[in-house]
């Protein structure tokens, strides 16, 4: 873990400076970041593999009280999945993730792209979101990880279904705005914590900041409890937050809130793909509970 934090470089110590640095690079995108809000089916290519993702424009446009943004495919999740697919990704290189790791994703949405790339490399991947999104999330994972005959596609790309099976992906309900997070994790057999918490584009407004940060704290505190009880093999949970840079004020308020319980680093350009690095309009931050 020390090697990982050293590799990440300087810790973020000032939210205002970090916000100015990111947003002054002039790449904040004018759009929200959805691939195509009106399409029912999208074809996505990541790491030379094709994925067919079914969306729900109906949920997205319904104005229902429960979250609707998870019903679409977002640029951030595609870029995060692409980065995690890199052979020399720092999380695997520095053994933050490995064959025995347990990963929890908050706000997974309906696509399941990050899960499909990480799951084959870890022991267990738990993708969570609100109940009304889970059926479509499970369907997309099943569709893109089912076994198919070995047929070479006409476009020369390898089929995504050759990539992995879905046996170690669990799709579970967790509403981090409303639910008792530790209780739910205990029921799901995760009461002793997880190795990594992933979140992709979970913060869209000020109201989401307090419950999201609190959920991250509660998940990561499960491992802190092990340390307090003298576990000699204790390793802290790493919290990884990927987001599109939309509103500087919302981002700065999130970072201020996140930095209170967490030590925070931005994944530097030398360790990240260009479409997530400086000037891309996206960023990934890593948090380790203080």
Automatic annotation (TrEMBL):
GO molecular function: S-adenosylmethionine-dependent methyltransferase activity
Source organism superkingdom: Eukaryota
Gene Ontology CC terms: cytosol; protein-containing complex
Pfam families: Methyltransf_16
Gene3D superfamilies referenced in this protein's UniProt entry, alphabetically: Vaccinia Virus protein VP39
Name of the protein: Diaminohydroxyphosphoribosylamino-pyrimidine deaminase
Organism whose genome encodes this protein: Baudoinia panamericana (strain UAMH 10762) (Angels' share fungus)
């Amino acid at each position: 873990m020390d090697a990982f934090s050293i590799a990440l470089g300087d810790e973020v110590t000032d939210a205002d400076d970090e916000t100015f640095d990111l947003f002054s690079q002039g790449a904040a995108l004018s759009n929200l970041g959805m691939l195509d809000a009106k399409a029912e089916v999208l074809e996505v290519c990541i790491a030379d593999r094709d994925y067919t993702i079914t969306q729900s424009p109906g949920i997205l446009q319904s104005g229902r009280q429960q979250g609707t943004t998870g019903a679409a495919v977002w640029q951030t999740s595609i870029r995060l999945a692409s980065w995690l697919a890199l052979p020399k990704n720092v999380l695997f290189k520095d053994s933050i993730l490995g064959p025995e790791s347990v990963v929890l994703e908050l706000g997974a949405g309906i696509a399941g792209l990050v899960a499909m790339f990480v799951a084959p490399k870890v022991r267990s991947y738990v993708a969570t979101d609100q109940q009304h999104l889970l059926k479509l999330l499970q369907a997309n994972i099943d569709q893109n990880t089912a076994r198919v005959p070995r047929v070479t596609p006409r476009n020369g790309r390898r089929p995504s279904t050759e990539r992995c099976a879905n046996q170690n992906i669990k799709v579970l309900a967790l509403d981090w705005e409303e639910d008792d997070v530790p209780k739910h994790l205990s029921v799901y057999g995760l009461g002793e914590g997880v190795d990594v918490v992933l979140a992709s584009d979970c913060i869209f407004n000020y109201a989401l900041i307090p419950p999201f940060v609190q959920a991250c704290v509660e998940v990561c505190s499960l491992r802190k409890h092990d340390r307090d009880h003298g576990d000699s093999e204790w390793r802290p949970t790493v919290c990884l937050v990927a987001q599109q840079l939309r509103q500087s004020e919302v981002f700065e308020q999130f970072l201020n809130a996140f930095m209170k319980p967490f030590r925070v680093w931005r994944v530097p350009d030398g360790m990240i793909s260009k479409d997530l690095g400086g000037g891309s309009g996206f960023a990934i931050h890593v948090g380790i509970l203080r």
